[in-house]
């Protein structure tokens, strides 16, 4: 065990020198810091392994309706008309691409964000901005 003084704002770096054939992914570096306040007579211990959190588990989202139905509903609200078959297919393709991208980026709610992006695209279009 090594004792040394640490002041507020100091950084503590650790260096591991593995002296065998193990690689950086094949061993663990676990240690405990015990911070003592001599004046108060208290000691607080921090374990390094408690600071490492596992990656978040992917969340599961439930669709209230199929993507195509949601796209058609948004289309009707924005343009006050039914989308064509081709427009519906393009909308669903766009939404699936958004879901994939947002899930890759670990978005907290990819369904909601994908629909928000789709609605933003609808209201940014010429059809929404200019009426005949």
Account of the 3D structure:
- There is one protein chain.
- This protein is mainly alpha-helical and 132 residues long.
- It has a domain of 63 residues.
- Helix content is 42%, strand content 9%.
- It is built from five helices and two strands, in the order E-E-H-H-H-H-H.
- Strands 1-2 form a two-stranded antiparallel ribbon.
- Strand 1 and strand 2 form a beta hairpin.
Question: Mind sketching the topology for me?
Answer:
Layout: E1 32-37, E2 42-47, H1 48-51, H2 67-79, H3 85-104, H4 110-124, H5 126-129
Antiparallel strand pairs: 1-2
Quick summary:
42% of the residues lie in helices and 9% in strands. It is mostly helical and 132 residues long.
Task: Write a concise keyword list for the protein shown above.
single chain; 132 residues; mainly alpha; two-stranded antiparallel sheet; 2 strands; 42% helix; elongated
Shape: elongated
Largest sheet: 2 strands, antiparallel
- How many beta strands in the DSSP annotation? 2
Helix content bin? 40-55%
Q: What would the average pLDDT be, to the nearest integer?
A: 81
Structural class: mainly alpha
Strand content: 5-15%
**End-to-end distance:** 80 Å
Would you list the SSEs in sequence order as H and E?
Answer: EEHHHHH
Q: Within the largest sheet, what's the order of strands? A: 1-2
Query: How many helices?
Result: 5
Radius of gyration (Å): 27 Å
């Amino acid at each position: 065990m090594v004792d040394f003084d640490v002041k507020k704002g100091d950084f503590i770096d650790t260096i591991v020198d593995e002296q065998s054939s193990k690689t950086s992914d094949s061993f663990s570096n676990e240690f405990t810091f015990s911070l003592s306040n001599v004046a108060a007579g208290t000691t607080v211990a921090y374990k390094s392994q408690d600071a490492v959190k596992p990656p978040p588990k992917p969340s599961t989202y439930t669709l209230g309706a199929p993507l195509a139905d949601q796209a058609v509903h948004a289309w009707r609200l924005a343009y006050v008309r039914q989308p064509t078959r081709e427009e519906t297919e393009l909308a669903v393709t766009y939404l699936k691409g958004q879901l994939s991208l947002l899930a890759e980026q670990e978005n907290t709610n990819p369904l909601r964000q994908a629909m928000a992006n789709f609605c933003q695209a609808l209201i940014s279009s010429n059809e929404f901005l200019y009426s005949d």
